[in-house]
Q: What sequence folds into this?
């Protein structure tokens, strides 16, 4: 009986450790995702966004910076 309890405790410990590791990994991933913010977008197609200056693949218009629009 004592051996069974030891095994159960060991399994519970492993479950806790792996759960913590998964939580940490998910948190780090979401942080990276929110940090990577797209700054440039097409005025005609707001769904076209880029993190660096360029042109819209749909209409060829120059992508404008989101910050410059807010400053107006
Ligand atoms: Zn466009």
A:
């Amino acid at each position: 009986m004592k051996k069974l309890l030891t095994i159960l405790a060991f399994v519970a410990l492993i479950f806790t450790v792996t759960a913590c590791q998964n939580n940490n990994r998910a948190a780090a991933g979401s942080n990276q995702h929110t940090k990577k913010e797209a700054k440039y977008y097409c005025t005609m197609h707001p769904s076209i966004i880029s993190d660096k200056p360029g042109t819209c693949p749909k209409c060829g218009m120059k992508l404008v910076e989101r910050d410059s629009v807010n400053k107006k």
